[in-house]
Amino acid sequence: MSLCRLRPTRLLTKHLRQCLAMSLRRESSGVRVRFGPSPTGFIHLGGLRTALYNYLYAKQHNGSFVLRIEDTDQERVVPGSQRNLEDMLQWTGLIPDEGPTTGGQYGPYVQSQRIDLYREKVTELLSTPMAYRCFCSDMRLDLLRKEKLKNREIPKYDNRCRHLSQREIDEKLANGEKFAIRLKLKSGPIGFDDIVFGRLSFDLSAIESDPVIFKSDGFPTYHFANVVDDHYMKISHVLRGAEWQVSTPKHIMLYEAFGWTAPKFAHLPLIMNTDGSKLSKRQNDIRIDYYRDNGYYSETIINYLTTIGSGFPHRLEDRIDGLQELTKLFDLTKVNTSNGKIETDKLRLYNRFSIYWYFNNGFENKLIEELKTLLISKFGSTRELNLDNDYLKFLITWSKERIFTLKELLNEEFIYLWKVPDFKWKVSDIATHEEFGKNLIMN
Asked: Which stretches make up the Glutamyl/glutaminyl-tRNA synthetase class Ib catalytic domain (predicted)?
């Protein structure tokens, strides 16, 4: 008998993590993970961290990293967001093994293109006691919610349609009444093993009503499409944000209703804003393309993200590692359970580390060419610019401790490096500029 089965219950959480780690090593060959963003906004630091950890886990176990676009909420789809997230994955090196562009044997990889499968499976589920049609109108649901709030009760649906007779259902269908489809929640707690958090348990029936799994517009909700796709795409491990922990029992119930085996779950701590608020896809200053366009390197973003949530117990923070090295160092069982916060100063410092790394590892020409491109873009004409490689290399060396991005060398404070200064100074300025010149020569 396995030693894992003999440990006392009081030691379960600590020992569970050890058993899960052993189990993960045994099952490496069949690892398939997916990153399933919704195209409702451009990808930000939180989304990329989830993609990164999925990618590293897949590569560590010689598995597959799948990109799936979860666009069932059609009203919230933002034009261009799918292209943006695919471009940013490409830019950061997190290239999917399967996905909308890459293809693969389990496609299509866009949920709106899999509607027929969802309709087939929800029809199958309706033939079991686990699901039912809900004919309640939006008006009734809204009035019910307001009444609950007025009475200081949890604003949840009263599961009224769960108790309709077959005759009542047939009459409503004959009258052409619109309906959604709900999952019958089991009463009592439902537990599951989380690779990161250990044993978790939630009693959903105490805090919410039977959830909608298929909307009246003919589209599935996230929960239903998520489970169906993970099954048919043979996903073995689900790595996602901790906000989905409370929804996991719903997913487990769906797996059980279909008679399917659920994947293993690992929930990652959230990345919060500096003030502790949640990240939003509408925040431009946390978008990955914002950092790219402002002179940050992909290596900067990737290495910085490894410091929020950990999972790298043997890695030094003040260095830049490539994806291959990070793959070796990553340990999913060592990911933190506490949320992290964005530290802008630390991110900027990592970009300085990237400049060091490029310069000290034979990639100074990359920095020189980047700086040339920035200068031409800024000033247009090259006649007044000194674009000599030795001069640019000297300036990069001189500025490494003064800047965080090469783009900062184009700021007004460094304009004297590129343009002939205006000598129409006031007499009172002369001493200041002489002192400045001395400092420049000395430094």
From this structure: 31-348
